[in-house]
């Protein structure tokens, strides 16, 4: 069994009835069992997805972060892991609970700072807990500990990951489920399903290449694709010197489906670079949420997930089915993303006997086969209407244009720029903490890319991307309104203006534009960046500084300043090898 103790205790009868078969080697697994609301559950009572007023219990976690050798796909390599696990443990809470995570930084070989980000959480009462080093906090130094504490202020599916350099591409990721009101009823919650591209080289050496001076190395290819941290790898493809490190048939993940029952799958792209195209042979997918935002359901056969995105789908078990079906994800090719081995299959099975036969022989949906060759975009905005309607300000007081480019900086390193400036963090000088002390101008540090929007009540940002790569653009601290997205130039129109799409990551297509808007309801220093690990390492990043007058009034706990003193003590003795933007 792979369950948190409390859940197992209280829901054991329900869970046993749904246990996957056969029992998997759980060494690298997060739960693939159904998840249910936690004890003291349903605190939202009669509240529905249209209410916004949750309740509160503390859910405490203790994370020890280390670097160790693991072989999730059979290839032994150094990975960064949490409590011995890759992917990291599931964080579960009910809507409105307080999540507390104490992180112990025990990374060695070499030592590194660390900071964990809670993707999609608004942090409206704890803007300093967002976990971005150089922006809201100093890194947790080697040997140090830090306790994050924040409210589970939205419900649905998400993940957490390190925001320190590209550590998360080295394994520092895990799923997060926040139980809340249901929009569409379902029978069985299959829990989080992590889709991750996977690189056999260490993240640091990849980053050296992607921000290096040799343009032929700036687009590294992933070596494999994983569902729930698992896939097989063909060891005959590794370099001759590496064969002893590689074992074939590491195993794939199994999911049990029940005929006629409605299953909820919480899909998460927690990879570094690859855009995922997910599908289940013979089964339709009913999309019920994008990121943390429930939507009016629609049915499709392929779900596209850019890095950082989540899609919750309902899948009805086929009546009378007994066999097994391929649940497949592929890293989209073309210029969407780059991989030498883009495909992964997990088994969706009905009858225990079916899974023993091995990989299913079912046929992929034609729509999936067509999409994997390179449709680098999310589903049309017209398909994704938020369940709870909100109308954005039709005339925001400020519209900021930002152009994204790729080129060489003065030392001929290949970097990404936003408005002609490549971001670089100063881990010792977090923007939010400076702003809290009344300092909102950094004339000597234009590379901090801070956009001070003052007291503007709403903010529109128009991104343009003339290049040939797409970028999954993520904004912290908000569910952004996505007013429009597409190729070519924006014609000034808004899709579904009374209730546009809201989510926290949207794919900005190659040769295209993305227009987003926020209500300035959350004073803070909020990262707006490409979520491809290699691109944010290359500087594709700005900070949205929102309502500095109100940031000055935030009661930021003294532990934040203390962490900076502890980090400074470390950096006084050790020169940090910051080869990239820092994020
Ligand atoms: C699980 O896999 C790990 C790594 O391959 C191996 O060391 C361990 O013996 C396996 N455990 C079982 C029960 O098969
Ligand atoms: C999938 O959806 C299509 C279109 O709504 C429908 O025609 C088809 O019967 C569905 N197939 C299954 C297996 O549910
Ligand atoms: C798929 O086909 C192969 C070859 O015919 C067979 O050995 C295997 O058992 C089949 N797998 C399933 C799940 O039916
Ligand atoms: C919630 O919002 C949805 C979408 O507008 C609407 O269909 C539904 O009736 C609303 N439910 C309640 C309880 O207000
Ligand atoms: C954009 O870049 C120009 C030229 O470097 C600079 O003057 C301007 O302040 C930048 N805009 C913002 C909002 O940072
Ligand atoms: C971009 O910045 C570089 C150096 O920082 C400068 O030489 C160049 O003129 C700038 N380009 C624009 C369009 O501002
Ligand atoms: C604000 O902070 C920056 C970075 O530490 C510093 O260079 C600058 O002098 C500070 N400005 C004021 C007015 O203190
Ligand atoms: C609104 O934002 C713009 C652009 O950042 C800024 O120049 C202006 O001062 C802001 N307005 C207010 C009222 O803060
Ligand atoms: C160019 O970018 C690289 C990679 O981030 C960085 O190490 C180097 O310092 C930058 N050069 C300049 C002149 O900013
Ligand atoms: Cu990008």
Automatic annotation (TrEMBL):
At the top level, the lineage of the source is Eukaryota
Which CDD domains has this protein been placed in?
CuRO_1_MaLCC_like, CuRO_2_MaLCC_like, CuRO_3_MaLCC_like
Q: Which residues form the Plastocyanin-like domain?
A: 65-182, 191-351, 429-549
Give the molecular function GO annotations: copper ion binding; oxidoreductase activity
**What Pfam families does the entry give?**
Cu-oxidase, Cu-oxidase_2, Cu-oxidase_3
Q: Which InterPro entries match?
A: Cu-oxidase-like_N, Cu-oxidase_2nd, Cu-oxidase_C, Cu-oxidase_fam, Cu_oxidase_CS, Cu_oxidase_Cu_BS, Cupredoxin
Which residues constitute the signal peptide according to the record?
Answer: 1-17
Tell me yes or no: is Signal among this UniProt entry's keywords: yes
Keywords from UniProt, A to Z, are: Copper, Metal-binding, Oxidoreductase, Signal
The answer to whether the entry has keyword Methyltransferase is no
Record-stated family: Belongs to the multicopper oxidase family.
- State the protein's name: Multicopper oxidase
């Amino acid at each position: 069994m792979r369950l948190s103790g409390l859940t197992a205790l209280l829901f054991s009868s329900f869970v046993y009835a749904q246990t996957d078969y056969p029992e998997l080697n759980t060494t690298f697994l997060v739960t693939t069992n159904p998840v249910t609301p936690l004890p003291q559950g349903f605190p939202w009572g009669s509240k529905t997805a249209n209410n916004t007023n949750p309740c509160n219990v503390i859910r405490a976690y203790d994370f020890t972060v280390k670097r160790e050798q693991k072989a999730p796909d059979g290839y032994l390599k150094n990975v960064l892991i949490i409590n011995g696990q890759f992917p990291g443990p599931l964080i579960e809470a009910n809507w409105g609970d307080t999540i507390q995570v104490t992180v112990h930084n025990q990374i060695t070989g070499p030592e590194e700072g660390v900071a964990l980000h809670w993707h999609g959480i608004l942090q409206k009462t704890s803007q300093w807990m967002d976990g971005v080093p150089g922006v809201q906090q100093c890194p947790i130094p080697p040997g140090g500990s830090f306790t994050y504490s924040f409210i589970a202020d939205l419900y649905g599916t998400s993940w957490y990951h390190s925001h320190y350099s590209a550590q998360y591409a080295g394994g520092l990721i895990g799923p997060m489920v926040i139980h809340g009101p249901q929009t569409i009823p379902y029978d069985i919650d299959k829990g989080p399903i992590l889709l991750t591209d996977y690189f056999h080289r260490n993240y640091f050496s990849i980053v050296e290449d992607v921000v290096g001076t040799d343009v032929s190395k700036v687009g590294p290819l992933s070596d494999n694709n994983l569902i729930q941290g698992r896939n097989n790898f063909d060891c005959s493809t590794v370099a001759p010197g590496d064969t002893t490190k590689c074992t074939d048939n590491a195993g794939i993940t199994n999911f049990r489906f029940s005929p006629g029952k409605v299953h909820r799958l919480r899909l998460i792209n927690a990879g570094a670079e690859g855009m995922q195209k997910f599908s289940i042979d013979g089964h339709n997918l009913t999309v019920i949420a994008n990121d943390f935002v429930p939507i009016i359901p629609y049915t499709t056969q392929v779900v596209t997930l850019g890095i950082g995105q989540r899609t919750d789908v309902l899948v009805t078990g086929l009546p009378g089915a007994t066999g097994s079906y391929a649940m497949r994800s592929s890293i989209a090719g073309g210029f969407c993303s780059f991989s030498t081995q883009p495909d992964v299959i997990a088994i969706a099975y009905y009858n225990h006997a079916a899974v023993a036969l091995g990989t299913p022989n079912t046929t992929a949906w034609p729509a999936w086969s067509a999409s994997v060759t390179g449709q680098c975009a999310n589903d049309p905005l017209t398909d994704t209407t938020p369940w709870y309607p909100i109308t954005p300000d039709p005339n925001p007081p400020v519209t900021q244009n930002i152009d994204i480019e790729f080129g060489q900086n003065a030392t001929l390193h290949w970097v990404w720029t936003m408005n002609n400036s490549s971001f670089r963090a100063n881990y010792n000088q977090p923007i939010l903490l400076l702003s809290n002390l009344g300092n909102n101008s950094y004339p000597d540090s234009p590379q901090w890319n801070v956009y001070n929007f003052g007291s503007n009540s709403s903010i529109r940002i128009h991104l343009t991307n003339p290049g040939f790569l797409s970028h999954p653009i993520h904004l912290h601290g908000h569910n952004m309104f996505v007013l429009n997205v597409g190729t070519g130039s924006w014609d000034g129109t808004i899709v579904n203006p009374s209730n546009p799409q809201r989510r926290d990551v949207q794919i900005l297509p190659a040769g295209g534009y993305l227009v987003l808007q926020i209500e300035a309801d959350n004073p803070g220093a909020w990262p707006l960046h490409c979520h491809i690990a290699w691109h944010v390492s290359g500087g594709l990043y700005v900070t949205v500084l929102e309502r500095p007058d109100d940031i000055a009034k935030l009661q930021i706990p003294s532990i934040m300043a203390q962490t900076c003193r502890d980090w400074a003590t470390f950096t006084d003795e050790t020169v940090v090898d910051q080869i990239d933007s820092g994020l």
